[in-house]
Every structure is written in C-alpha cells, then in structure tokens.
Amino acid sequence: MDVEKVFHMTGGVGETSYSRNSSLQKKASDMVKQVILETVEEVCLTTKPKSIGIADLGCSSGPNTLSNIKEIIETSRNNKLLQPAAPTEFRVFLNDLPTNDFNAIFQALPEFRHQLKELGRNHIGHGPSNIYIAAYPGSFYGRLFPDHCLHFIYSSYSLHWLSRIPSGIYDEDGRSMNKANIYISENSPPQVSEAYFEQFQEDFSLFLRSRSEELVSGGKMVLILLGREGLHHADRGNAFFWKILSRSLTNLFTKGEVEKEKLDSYEVHFYAPCKEEIGEIVKRDGCFQVDRLEIFEVEKNIVGNGMSYGRMVAMTVRAIQESMIAHHFGEAIVESLFEEYGRLVDEEMAKEEIRPITFLLVLKKL
Q1: Is the dihedral of CA 9, 6, 138, 28 positive or negative?
Q2: 6: Cβ–Cβ under 8 A, 6 or more apart, which residues?
Q3: What is the set of domains in the chain, with CATH numbers?
C-alpha cells in the first residue's frame, strides 16, 4: 500500500471527520502550549528576525490547525520582551500529505485573518503585522523548503507515522511474518519489532537532516509524538490500542465480515519509540541539541455528550485510520469495526487502565 497516496485524516466537518474528533490532540497541544510559546520567544530573541518563517508539519485540517499559529503570532507581536524587535512579517507554511483536506483550511482562513485583525488592534508593536500563509503538500520525510528559510517548526502527533510499512516484516514470498497482528505484539517474531525500529530510525534521521537544512542557525523545533515508556514494545499503552483494533478485526472475521487473506496482510505504518531511542537518534545525527525531552499523559476526563471513553477513542482512531482501513478491507466494515473497537476499549478500561504516553521534544539547530 502506498501510504503517501492513501493515508489522510477524514476530511470535512461531518460526524466522523477529524475536525470533529481531534479533542484528544487539542488537549495535548493545550498542555504544552506554554512550551511552544516560550520556544518561539527564545528563537525571536536569539535570531531577531524581521520576517519569521514558521512551519506546521502534519497540520491536518481540523480546528487545531490554525489555533496554534494564531497563538504564536499573537504572542510574538504582543511580547514586551521582543519589542521593538518583534517580527513584522510572518511566513506560515502548512504541510501535510497531498491527500489532506487543504480546502477546509483555506475555507477557514478568512475568519482566521479577521480574528487576527481584531486582536491586532490592541497589539503593542509598531504597525500591523504582515501574515502570509501557504500550503506545502508532501511528505516531511525529505526536503520541503528552501535552505535556511525557517525559524520555528512545530509538529503534533505526526512523527509516529512511518513513511511506509517496514519491508522487513515480510518473508521471501512477500507474506507478513506478523500474522494475526497489525502492530508489534507479545507474539510477534523479533524480526517484526526490529523492522519497525529500523524504519523509524531511517525516517526520523531523514526528518532531522532535512529540517536542519531548512532552519536558520539557532532555529528550533517542538515535536509532539506518541511513544512508550520502556524498552518493551507491547505495553499497555499505545501498542495496546492497536492490539484492540486487531482483536476487533478478528471478531469481524469470525462473523464472516472480513476475509482471512485481508486480515493477515493488514499492518499499520506506526511506531511508538521510547525516550532512549529518540535521544540516541538525535545524538547520532548531530544536527540538533535536545533542549527538552519529556513524557506526559493526556487526561481522560474530557469525554462529553454522554460518550464513553471507548467511544471517543474509537471515533478518534476512525478519523485517523478510516482511509487506510477502507482502502484495504472496503468501506462496508468501517461502521461495525469501530462499534466493536469502542466496546472493547471500554471493556478493557473496566479491567485495568490503558496509559498511552506522549513525548514532548524541543530541539535546537546546532
């Protein structure tokens, strides 16, 4: 499966859209917002740009896309510490795969600009700021922008997605060695976890090298990605959610709704790294200095509208995975699959807590 051509968040503003089902991601972003704003402030104080280049990599198309950009712009032009040297021009680049619903972002821009204009009436800078926003479709595993044109890069919940399914999980005949699983589990052969890690190393190293060419000296990145706490891959965290999705697919197979061949050949292009793996790759590549590398958990008390936690997780995962699942299995199973998935998540949560962890990584270009 060609990930770049198929994978995308569910577009639009419907009930199953990413726009309507990204509250968990918004919560995480809000939890680290102060770090984002402080990092932008540090970059401005260090590099003193009159025209600042900002990129959001893996921007998707929901309400989260422009909210962080608005906060960054307002903080930069209203921060007394930066006056009178605050940027007067903002170049904002929104990146995601070509299949992303960029039209939804474009349709939101007039209201976004209106909000900035209203807020800007009271800003303390010398005259209005010029704000230029552009979409840059393409994979961030490779170069996207000209040399040294960016000062700050932000990426939220994107870098745990791999550029492809690791080739090392297939045998000589092209069959998956990870049968009955869609990700690394307790019964996966050692070659499977090794292949996933090798693919993550390759992708993350390419990401770092590409961004180091695009950032100015002293530029910084704030990266938020899913991970795991220890060296064991099959923990009761992010990997466990994939295990539940695998069980959901198996249950549909027993009902005759999924073919065995399809079930055995579906894998996710995902990897949850541990802290040590991230730190080692950054150190080895030598392009960046680690300013912060922290673990946090998103609170689970944000369920509303009478929706259970399992149902909310199911809607979130559906908004992210529907494009891949519908392409592989067909659209007919999507509704029943995520009904089953939500039920199983609630069932497991009643037995024992599931603890998906997130990494906050702040890097400075050397």
Answers
A1: positive
A2: 99, 323, 324, 327
A3: 3-365 (3.40.50.150)
Quick: pLDDT tens for 186-198: 999 999 999 999 9
Mean pLDDT of 240-265: 96
Share of the chain above pLDDT 90, in %: 75
Least confidently predicted of 158-172, 268-282, 290-304, 314-328 = 290-304
State both tokens at 198: 């090798």
Which two structure tokens, joined as six digits, stand for 162? 């791999």
217: helix, strand or coil: strand
* pLDDT score, position 128: 53
Question: Is residue 199 predicted with pLDDT exceeding 70?
Answer: yes
Could you tell me if 31 and 296 are in contact, meaning their C-beta atoms sit under 8 angstroms apart? Answer: yes
SS (H, E, C) 309-344: HHHHHHHHHHHHHHHHHHHHHCHHHHHHHHHHHHHH
Length of the chain counted residue by residue: 366
The Cα–Cα gap between 250 and 243 comes to 10
Give, to the nearest 10 degrees, the angle between helix 275-285 and helix 190-214.
50
CB 290 within 8 A of CB 365: no
Give pLDDT, residue 7: 94
Rounded to two decimals, what is the model's pTM?
0.94
User: Backbone phi, then psi, for 67, in 5-degree steps?
Assistant: -65, -45
56 is written with which tokens?
């959001």
CB contact at 8 A, 325 and 337: yes
Alpha-carbon gap, residue 334 to 151, rounded angstroms: 41
User: How many Å apart are CA 157 and CA 358, to the nearest integer?
Assistant: 9
Strand partners, 54: 92, 152
